[in-house]
Amino acid sequence: GLEFGFADTFFIRGGLGSGYPSAGMGFKTTHSELNLAWFSEEVGSGYKSERDIRYVFHYILKAF
Fold it and tell me: Is the confidence at residue 18, as pLDDT, over 80?
């Protein structure tokens, strides 16, 4: 995967995992971080497997 950062504040990410694309973006300040990501993974048995799409929202509040 690749990640591009702009002014150490805004980040764009993309890549491949298990043969499926993934992407995300993030915003960072001195007191918090906000990240949103999208990825897929294969679930199920080898005979009957499906693509499971997931979205992740991650918020970090820094105390120190």
Answer: no
